[in-house]
Design a protein that fits this description.
By secondary structure, this protein is α/β, with parallel strands linked by helices. The chain has ten helices and twelve strands. Helix 1 packs across helix 10 (301-314). The relative contact order is 0.15.
Length: 319
């Protein structure tokens, strides 16, 4: 026998079973894919399967042998319903800002990305979506040696001809000025990303990224200047890091309403003249002061949703 009883029994019990989570987001929506990434960052101990949205998660729904222990579904009510019908417990997230009421969703838990400071209607109550709070990036610090400009464009609801006109007009002018002033420009776009990419294809120093695969939070951390469509992604990035933000003109009604409500709470400007020197020399001190005026930040929205997913995967009967 081994000396001192070593080896008589296993040093450890059986390895714990890793729970499998399915994470599905609307692939054409910047807010949706960003929310999924931020929540996934708090679920590293789980086996995560991220659906790109090309099949709306349906190949997973139909594979009973591979059925996940729980699922996060962002902005795809039909997918939430189908998963629920397959007895998969679902956390459903309304990731973006809406001027109209939120649609009814079949899910074990329904949440809405709703920063507490943002004026406007908010769905709550036992039969509606509970506010999740602010979904912040997992890493709050920005790079010490940040350079260049990040342009964050959300046009998933804009008609193709309107998006093309915007990309070939103001957006291209801003991107060209960004390269001249800061040395480089990263453009992240959702919706028909190919339209924006085509408009900027021959602009030297500009790199275009599809929101489905781009790590927006990392690109923001590395950028010196941040110019973005009015979305919850852009607002939460700037608020979480107390960073300067200049808004692009809105491309749909929801963005217009969000921009109007946001400027009631915090000092933000909108691009009017791309050649304005003040646009390219934002004050970190002024931005910190402006965001601080909202009061203490609660940045734990992503952690809360991740915790609910863990609970559903381990004890779905409790929901």
């Amino acid at each position: 026998m081994p000396a001192n009883g070593e080896g008589e029994f296993p040093a450890h019990g059986p390895a714990p079973v890793r729970r499998r989570l399915l994470l599905v987001a609307a692939p054409r929506r910047l807010d949706s894919v960003t929310a999924r990434r931020r929540i996934a960052a708090h679920l590293r101990e789980m086996d995560l399967v991220e659906d790109t949205g090309g099949t709306d998660g349906r190949e997973w729904i139909r594979k009973d042998a591979d059925r996940p222990d729980a699922a996060l579904v962002c902005d795809l009510p039909a997918v939430a319903r189908e998963l629920t019908e397959r007895s998969v417990p679902v956390v459903y997230l309304h990731s973006g800002y809406r001027t109209r009421g939120l649609p009814a969703v079949t899910a074990a838990a329904v949440r809405a990305h709703a920063p507490a400071w943002l004026p406007g209607p908010r769905a709550t109550g036992p039969d509606g979506a509970r506010p999740a709070g602010l979904l912040a990036p997992s890493r709050l610090a920005r790079d010490r040696t940040r350079t260049g400009c990040l342009l964050l464009v959300s046009g998933h609801r804009a008609p193709g001809h309107d998006l093309a006109a915007f990309a070939e007009g103001l957006l291209r002018t801003v991107a060209e000025e960004a390269v001249r002033r800061t040395g480089r420009c990263d453009v992240v776009c959702d919706g028909e990303a190919a339209i924006t990419a085509a408009a900027l294809a021959h602009t030297t120093g500009v790199q275009v990224h599809d929101a489905r695969t781009a790590d927006v939070d990392a690109l923001h951390a590395a950028a010196r200047v941040f110019i973005a469509s009015p979305t919850l992604t852009s607002l939460t990035l700037a608020q979480s890091r107390r960073a300067p933000l200049t808004l692009l003109p809105p491309l749909d009604h929801d963005q217009d309403d969000l921009a109007r409500r946001a400027v009631q709470a915090v000092r933000l400007t909108t691009v009017t003249d791309p050649a304005d020197p003040a646009l390219w020399a934002p004050s970190d001190t002024d931005a910190h002061s402006a965001w601080s005026g909202l009061g203490p930040d609660d940045l734990r929205g992503a952690q809360r949703i991740a915790r609910t997913l863990r609970q559903l995967a381990l004890a779905p009967i409790a929901f």
